[in-house]
Amino acid sequence: MKPIKVGLLGIGTVGAGTFTVLKRNAEEISRRAGRRIEITMVADLDVARALALTDGECEVVNDASLIINHPEIDIVIELIGGAGIARTLVLQAIANGKHVVTANKALLALHGNEIFKAAQEKGVIVAFEAAVAGGIPIIKVLRESLTANRIEWVAGIINGTTNFILSEMRDKGIDFTTALSGAMQLGYAEADPTVDIEGIDAGHKATLMASIAFGIPVQFGKAHVEGITKLQSVDIGYAEQLGYRIKLLAIAKRTPLGIELRVHPTLIPTRRLIANVEGAMNAVLVQADAVGATMYYGKGAGAEPTASAVIADLIDISRLFTAQPDHRVPHLAFQPDAMTDTPILPMAEITTSYYLRMHVADQLGVLATVTRILADSDISIDAMLQKEPAGGASETDIIILTHLTQEKCVDAAIARIEALATVIGKVTRIRLEELE
Ligand code: NDP
Ligand code: HSE
């Protein structure tokens, strides 16, 4: 059968990994796909580097539009990144009737509705397994393997860079900046690593998972996104003493009021498997009504793990080449006319447990006043830790873990606690998930 001709846009970390794996495993891949899959054109701004990587095996150009307008290219792989030129190129490729494979979660979280609509109208596929959790096939799981279920919630460690930083800081005592440059050298971080450390990348991925899990449009603008830059090592230490580990967790949860869509540092009981996911590894826990809890673990970033997902999409498209567009798996799992407008809840309406740390004057009655405020705000206490003041000091830390409560109750209680003359500075609040 005629080989599938592929054009690669961007031969950086993931592009180079894709080129290498596709070449190394060409024989196995063609046995699976039913025909050869060949990268015949590569576009990159750095033509010299691209020529060195491809070693004369395909045509190299510096203008990506030469690929998307080329009549012989069947599938375009977009591995440039970002939501700028990548959006223009992907939309143009779709308009030209080309299938698209992308690892670009930023692009899809911001412009997914427009892109999937265009693809649907044109009868082409936009495949994006690599966009969430790198090499872990979580998109396929949510879109195809768990379709019998009503998915209740999805919780994941889905940013390798931040998980790597937290592990390095906790296990090796390495400071934040050094750990971040390690993640950058290893190719885990985005071109602008702020996107990783501020939780935006995990927010993009959570947005895509929420759409597929619940059949709602892609709505990154309504996600709550908080990164790890404000996390203090004192809280990592207190959490450990209380039997919890702090992870940057992405959560998409169905509730009777709407959908919680949030990314933030989270205390997770140390005994949970997911609390022990370290380094650049990712894990996604899915709670569904029929199957119960299932967990997916693996490399969430890096050249070849991500290439694994990119090439799996290429093979899927090659197998579906002759299928009628109406018989294909919908881009966002649910049929386009069966999407719902279930609201994404504002943070004030979400329900979770909390870790609260306050620095207080070591005086009689302080603790009683704080606990009274919590009780007045309908917040029940699960555990408490009061540190002995350091030798000679007149101030100390109080740490309180709450039971489940609404965020707005905690907002109100924190405002009252911070107004007390005996409470010094701000109350630190970190959300806590038991993941039962
Ligand atoms: P890189 O920055 O390593 O690669 C991007 C490549 O695209 C570079 O070689 C760049 O060239 C090239 N490029 C930039 N603009 C153009 C253009 N207009 N035309 C052609 N080429 C261009 O990024 P990654 O490989 O790390 O990431 C690619 C995508 O994969 C991103 O969307 C990222 O979010 C996603 N991803 C990355 C993962 C990872 O582990 N790295 C994992 C999962 C997803 P130059 O360097 O000269 O600017
Ligand atoms: N920067 C991303 C991460 C790459 O660290 O997880 C994988 O999507």
Summarize the structure.
The protein has three domains: 4-136 and 303-338, NAD(P)-binding Rossmann-like Domain (Rossmann fold); 138-299, Dihydrodipicolinate Reductase, domain 2, CATH 3.30.360; 351-432, Alpha-Beta Plaits (2-Layer Sandwich), CATH 3.30.70.260. Helices cover 37% and strands 25% of the residues. The chain is built from 15 helices and 17 strands.
Helix-strand layout with pairing:
Blueprint: E1 4-9, H1 13-24, H2 26-33, E2 37-43, H3 47-54, E3 59-61, H4 65-68, E4 75-78, H5 85-95, E5 99-102, H6 105-122, E6 126-127, H7 138-145, E7 151-157, H8 160-172, H9 176-185, H10 194-197, H11 200-214, E8 224-225, H12 233-241, E9 244-254, E10 259-269, E11 281-288, E12 292-299, H13 303-320, E13 351-361, H14 366-376, E14 381-386, E15 395-402, E16 405-406, H15 407-418, E17 423-432
Helix pairs in contact: 1-13, 2-13, 5-6, 6-11, 8-9, 14-15
This protein binds NADPH dihydro-nicotinamide-adenine-dinucleotide phosphate and L-homoserine.
What features would you describe in this structure?
The strands form two sheets. Strands 7, 8, 9, 10, 11, 12, 13, 14, 15, 16 and 17 form an eleven-stranded mixed sheet that branches. 37% of the residues lie in helices and 25% in strands. The protein is an alpha/beta fold. The longest helix has 18 residues, at 105-122. The chain has three domains: 4-136 and 303-338, 3-Layer(aba) Sandwich (Rossmann fold), CATH 3.40.50; 138-299, 2-Layer Sandwich (Dihydrodipicolinate Reductase, domain 2), CATH 3.30.360; 351-432, ACT domain (Alpha-Beta Plaits), CATH 3.30.70. The protein starts with a strand and ends with a strand. Helix 6 (105-122) packs parallel to helix 11 (200-214), helix 8 crosses helix 9 (176-185) and helix 14 (366-376) packs antiparallel against helix 15. The model has no long low-confidence stretch (mean pLDDT 96). It has helices spanning 13-24, 26-33, 47-54, 65-68, 85-95, 105-122, 138-145, 160-172, 176-185, 194-197, 200-214, 233-241, 303-320, 366-376, 407-418; strands at residues 4-9, 37-43, 59-61, 75-78, 99-102, 126-127, 151-157, 224-225, 244-254, 259-269, 281-288, 292-299, 351-361, 381-386, 395-402, 405-406, 423-432. The relative contact order is 0.13. It has 15 helices and 17 strands. The protein binds NADPH dihydro-nicotinamide-adenine-dinucleotide phosphate and L-homoserine. Residues 134, 159-161, 188-190, 196, 201, 300-301 line the site of L-homoserine (HSE).
